[in-house]
Fold this protein.
Amino acid sequence: MAAGFFQAEMSMLSSTLARSYSIPFRKTLMSFDFRIAMERNPFPRIPRSRVAAFSSSPPHSRNFPIPGLEDVFVGYLFGRKKATEVAHLVWEQIIQKGDVVVDATCGNGNDTLAMLKMVTDDSNGYGGHVYAMDIQKDAIESTSSLLDQTLGSKEKERVKLFNICHSKMEEIVPEKSSVRMVAFNLGYLPGGNKSIITVSDTTLSALKASERVLVPGGLISLVVYIGHPGGREELEVVEAFGSGLPVSDWVCCKLQMLNRPLAPVLVFMFKREK
Ligand SMILES: C[S@@+](CC[C@H](N)C(=O)[O-])C[C@H]1O[C@@H](n2cnc3c(N)ncnc32)[C@H](O)[C@@H]1O
């Protein structure tokens, strides 16, 4: 029964994907070739001008299939990859060398470090900036120490760390900077004080600030943890915010495990290019 249901669901998903990518309906998801689909039209609603930027490599050398896509995304679908790995893969499709990005919850610095690698080109020292913030001083110290262990002093200069609430991000991101991405990893600091968590009110204010600072072609990315008190309410606030963004300007989606009710939920809000 369960297996039958699974197959039926997969087959429906397969048909939907097939329709989006003009691939014959009889192909099942198992035989669905992501590479073919991505080569034909990687993101059907996004202008093709943007497609050139869907890789971490320089625009002139970008092509498909996207390296790592099958490994990470399909790995996530089958329970072998984490939500954060999927988030990082999505970031790589959006962020370009030289970009300005915001880590709204830097915690232990893992996401900050991943972002820095995406905005920096080691070969010629060219790079953008990461504005990283956290409400906890301990988190700022933890991020700083991770960067010290991993980076040279020149690279570290590209990260600006702030011990503030993310609802105030506009006070630290220079007014004229074109912010390509704002990323949130909500919840509490792993290994830290579990009573200091992100809360709906300030998360909502920070989302509104993100909407204001983001350039067209940019991304608001969220990994939402729902296993702690208040987590589910916060997800509802995030979902309501994303649902309210006009479809003419935004593409918003979420990825959520159905039978793991406490698994983190991924939410992506992509601001269309004009
Ligand atoms: C899940 S952790 C982030 C993990 C981090 N991105 C990493 O890679 O290690 C969530 C972080 O959000 C921080 N936080 C909570 N409320 C905040 C707020 N209003 N503004 C900024 N950071 C906040 C917490 O202190 C915690 O460090």
